[in-house]
Amino acid sequence: MTKDIEAAAYLKDKIKYTPKIGIVLGTGLGDLAECVEDAVVIPYTEVPHFPVSTAPGHKGRFVSGRLAGAPVLIMQGRIHFYEGYTMQELAFPIQVMKAAGIEELILTNASGGINAAYTPGDLVCIKDHIKFDLDSPQRGRNREDLGGRFFDMTHAYAPSMRNIAKETMAALGLPEFEGVYAYMGGPQFETPAEIRMLRILGADLVGMSTVPEAITAAHCGIRCMGISCVTNMAAGMENGGLDPAVIHRAERDARQNFENLVKGIVERLWKK
Question: How far apart are the C-alpha atoms of 212 and 94, rounded to whole Å?
């Protein structure tokens, strides 16, 4: 038995429902898990072989139950490359979700805004990404039971799921923002020169997560989408740079919109 299957078997033995929708909650977005009904909470430390979140604000636990009527499996906190994990270790949680039966995955994160049309607190549907780390979560011996050695990333962020996100945004009266997410390893924030480069290359957002998970989802056949919460404008942008007060206010202001958006997406995915 492989480690991911062993971890998934532990989860399936504990949870009450068979979830098809998985959600990964990023920095400042973990409160959504408190909306889950009939919840079962499983700390990562209890799951065989599972890595532990060390980033501030990441509770490091699975929450399973019903959200907007749909059975879900939520990661309340993720792991990051900057915590010292390898790219291959970043793949493991998504492989566990696959083994647990997840077919559709919603990845969420906090990000810096590069597109000048954004303001802190905006929610953006990720349509594509740019990765600036040459390593890959799929480097090394390929797991043929999960996916092929070479795999397509054209629709890594599934158009059908993005359309549902935009429909939900419109129904909630939110701007229908879509953007390209640039992945930087961190933990340091980007320099103004790096942000100028990313803007020239077509990036709208920048952050330190999500992309390794999206690559792994594409490899193992999970349909995936991403929602990014702009918590600050990036370095060198107008009113840009690291300001904890701005980030805290953006997370607070976006909380209800974020919860409504994700619940609306989940409900539409479940009913489609």
Answer: 10
Longest dimension (CA), the chain: 53
- The Cα–Cα gap between 142 and 145 comes to 9
Q: By C-alpha distance, which of 187, 188, 176 is closest to 227?
A: 176
171 CB-side CA count, 13 A = 14
Beta-strand pair 70-76/21-25: parallel
pLDDT digits (tens, 9 = 90+) for 164-192: 999 999 999 999 999 999 999 999 999 99
Burial class (CB in 10 A: 0-12, 13-18, 19+), 19: buried
Task: Return d(Cα 222, Cα 218) in angstroms, integer.
Answer: 6
Question: Is residue 109 within 8 Å of 210, Cβ to Cβ?
Answer: yes
Residue pair 33/63 in contact (Cβ under 8 Å)? The answer is yes
- C-alpha torsion angle, residues 188, 189, 192, 195 (rounded to 10): 120
**N-to-C CA span, the chain:** 34
Model pLDDT for residues 30-56, shown as the tens digit of each residue: 999 999 999 999 999 999 999 999 988
Q: State the Rg of the chain over Cα.
A: 17
Find, among 191, 202, 187, 182, the residue nearest to 235 by Cα: 191
